[in-house]
Amino acid sequence: MMNYSDSVHIKVRDIDFCGATNRAEINDQVVDELTKALKAGQLFFPPIEVVKNHSGKLKYWLIDGRHRCLACQVANGDGAIIRAVVYSGTQRDAVLLSLRSNHALPRSDADKRAAVLTMLTNKLVSTKKGGYPWSDHEIAEHCCVDLQLVSQVRIDPTASIKRQSVALLTRTIKPPAGPTLQTKQRHGQGHTLVSMPWDTKRAAGVLLDALGTRYAQSLVAELTNCMEGVNT
Question: Which CATH fold would you assign to the domain 4-226?
C-alpha cells in the first residue's frame, strides 16, 4: 500500500503528461465527477505518482493520476496544486511504471491495448536495457494483461489505431484555465473540438490525450512532411 505520509504538494502545471501512457483516452465523465466533488469539498483522493525530472522545463513525469490532475486543474485553475508521491528515476522509468499503474480508475480494454502497443513501439521502452526486445510473456506480465492480447496487438497493431479514430468522432477535450486556441477536426459527419493551451509543451499533452499515442505519432510524421513540402 502507498505511504501517503511520503507525499508532497506540487503544481499541476509542472507535470509532463507525455510520459503517462496508461490510458488510451481521457474519460470526460470521470473528470467531470471528480471536478464537481472537488469544488464541493467532498473529495479527498490519493496522491498521484510522478518521477522527478531534474533537467527539463517541466519538473515531473506523470506515472499515474491523469484524471485527478485534470480535475484538479479544472477546479482550481492554472495554479492548481496536487499531492504526489515523487520517485527518482528517468523518463523511461516513468513510462514503464505507468504501463502497469491502475490505482484509482480500472483500465478499459483500450487502455490495456494502448499499454501493450506502447511497450512494443515506444523507443524509450521497446527494448530491455541490454537492447533486446521484450518477449510476449514479459510484456503481458509487466502490463498486467493476458498473453493473448499481447499476441493480437503484435500481429495487428493498427487495430488500436482504428478504435482510437472512431473515438475521435465525439470527443471533447476540456482545457485547463488560461488562454486557449480552438480548432476543429472533421471526420465524415462527426467532429472533435480540441481547446489548445498556448504553451506548446502543455498543448502537446492535450493533443496526446485527444489522439492517442499511435495516432499522434502518425500525425507528427504527416505534419513533418507538410512542413518540408513533401506530397504524400
Answer: 3.90.1530
